[in-house]
Amino acid sequence: MRVATQSVYRGIQQNIWRLSRELKRTEDQVSSGKNFNRPSDNPAAVVHSLGLRATLARIDQYQKNLQTGSQWMDLNETVLNQVSTVAARAQDIALKVDGGNQTAEVRALAVAEIDQLLDEAIALGNTQLSGKYIFGGYRNATTPFVRVVDGGVERVVYQGDGNDFQVLVGPGETISAGKNGQTVFMDSHLFSGLIDLKQAILNNDPAAIQQQSTLLQGATDYFNAQVSDVGIRQSRLKIKADILSRFNLHLQNQVDDLENVDYSRAILELKEQQT
Fold it and tell me: CA 165, CA 6: separation in Å to the nearest integer?
């Protein structure tokens, strides 16, 4: 009889403890607004929540990368439009002096302006964003373009590398935010074209001037094509940003549903447990 009484007592005591724990958990939910306040409240939900939050953290980093990529592309587009204008202006000068009948003074003024355009083109090639040279490739801490004279021969040297600036926008997924200076500037032959045009004007060589004028037209077309390419990549960037934004909202709603308490249900449970 005593054993049976002790068993009943233990059962009642265990039930009281269980009800007390449930009451405490519900009170904590109502006061904190959270479905769980410690891992022991709901271990499976805690693990799920941690996984969702880890994914949200990765998405947040991808979105920051997209913002960096967008800034990089916007500046690329601006520079490419400006350098296209430089090439077009140089071609205009070439057309004005290609007849071979200009005075030495006129040719000297043309050479001086071409020299200024060369400086401007080099400065554009050395454009920086947040302390990084946007056309340096991975060597973006080093000045990409340097004007040198070696043995009386003038040229522009590229000190960057052949890598494009990439941003990570998903697991194993990158977007090229900016092309390297070899591709954008050296392959356009703008620098060499400006230098050769100066010499052709100094020599009063109409055939050479005409040749460089044609080359500069090609450089202008080349830069305009680069601008179009930036526009294509900007569109891809915006599409990816929209996808990540919607995915982020979807996951955040899941986290909210998992972690945040339903006050109506919790208060109802609390009243039931208190009676």
Answer: 76
